[in-house]
Structure formats: structure tokens, C-alpha cells
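Report of the visiting student (M.T.), summer placement. My assignment was to run the structure pipeline on a short list of targets and document each run. The first record concerns Glyco_hydro_65m.
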Amino acid sequence: VLGGGGRRNRGDPALQQGIRYNMLQLLQAAGTNGRSDVSSKGLTGDGYEGHYFWDTETYVLPFFLFTRPEVSRKLLEYRFHTLPQARARARELGHPRGALFPWRTIDGEECSAYYPAGTAQAHIDADIAHAVRIYCESTGDGAFLRD
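After the run finished, the C-alpha cells were exported:
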């Protein structure tokens, strides 16, 4: 069922069950079409209205690098597809160049109703850049950057 990600912990069945359950949650929640991401609560709740956060690139993408690298690529493709909105947002907030990815999003536009939080999350760009770097280094997929 977990194909390629089924790691075994032989000493503790409860721990093994917990690991497999968490892996299943990640596998079923991940966007695999390049146009969606992992919502903040996965499939377990409606917190944050299902918006996507930078947490995917920081915490979820590394799991897929080791178990399903093709899913990691699809998660990064989602960010690539929202790059035009991120560039427009940078201009809107006074940056003449570059991109500023939103804190909370579905379609690339900022979804936070709390303006101070939505405009203070500049670290997101570095988190995404780091994810692209570790993806390319781990997989050798230089085509991702060229495309």
C-alpha cells in the first residue's frame, strides 16, 4: 500500500503503526497534479479553510524526497504555477523585482484575512528556494530549473 515508503521498525509495533498511519496521511493528502499542494490540516480537518502554507516545502517535501521524489516535483510545480501571482504580490508590496509567495493560499493569491500576518511572512520565499535546492540536489533533476 505504501509502495516505496514502507519502512520497518521491528522493535515497537505501536510505533510502526503510528509511522505507517502518518505516512498514509501524507500520501493521501499530497497534491500530485502540479496544480495543488497539501492543505494545512491534510484530510483530517478544516483548519485554515484548507489553505496551503509554506509548511509543505519545509516539512512535507523532504518526506517525499525519500519515498516518492515525483510527488516532490509536483509540489514544487504548484509553486511554479503560482509564480505570476507571487511576482505581482512583490510589486504590490513595493518590491520592484522578485516574487513574494503568500502565507496562506489556494490559487497563489494571499488568503489571510489578517493583513499584518499575511504581509510579514517574507521567509516563505527562502523556504521555497531551499526546497527547490534540496529537490534538485537529491534527485539530480536539473530540468526542473531549466523548465
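Helices lie at 13-29, 55-67, 69-81, 83-92, 115-119, 123-139, 143-146. The chain has a mean pLDDT of 90. I thank the supervising group for their guidance throughout the placement.
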